[in-house]
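Bench log, entry 3. Co-assembly request; chain sequences pasted below exactly as received.
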Amino acid sequence: NAGVTQTPKFQVLKTGQSMTLQCAQDMNHEYMSWYRQDPGMGLRLIHYSVGAGITDQGEVPNGYNVSRSTTEDFPLRLLSAAPSQTSVYFCASSRGGKGYEQYFGPGTRLTVT
Amino acid sequence: QQQVKQSPQSLIVQKGGIPIINCAYENTAFDYFPWYQQFPGKGPALLIAIRPDVSEKKEGRFTISFNKSAKQFSLHIMDSQPGDSATYFCAASLGSARQLTFGSGTQLTVLP
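Structure output for the full assembly:
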């Protein structure tokens, strides 16, 4: 099993550009989530999904969109990048009913100039 | 707003010492309290988790102590090793989807 994979590992964007961060898991987990990690702030939940076709907002959803058409994939879209979105982004997945046990990907380091 | 407050921000101990990391929460509806360990350049990984009806849980050298009345919980690392040097996050989960609210993290350094 590859677990949770994320692409790209690094990305530099200019303000106003859009892009999609990719996330895939091969563990057949129902739940998937996106977090951003900033120094001194821990990880903050952006969006999450409890199954294909079902998504919901987390703590910091503004400026981001998600969709989940399959169990395996959960892409995160930045609509119009801003310097405040410079961060490390982590995708995670978990089994239904055990959401506290999340499996994280290696992260994407995004810089917006 | 649901919050989990973590301290200290950083911690340095000698090999064999017992670092203690503390967390406090506000929302009594939280139903699981996991700890995650993160090494540089990697994603966090679950270390140990506890339910609020349990006062203590041990897994190897890692122990969670839970005080429900005080709404506090802590991580103790027995016989700490340089390989334990990492950032540790406490968290709390809520709801059927068990989404996590994380503390701000503690950077632990264990000196050889």
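Chain B touches chain A at residues 4, 6, 9, 32-34, 41-46, 49, 89, 91, 93, 96-105 (CB under 8 Å). The mean pLDDT of chain B is 94.
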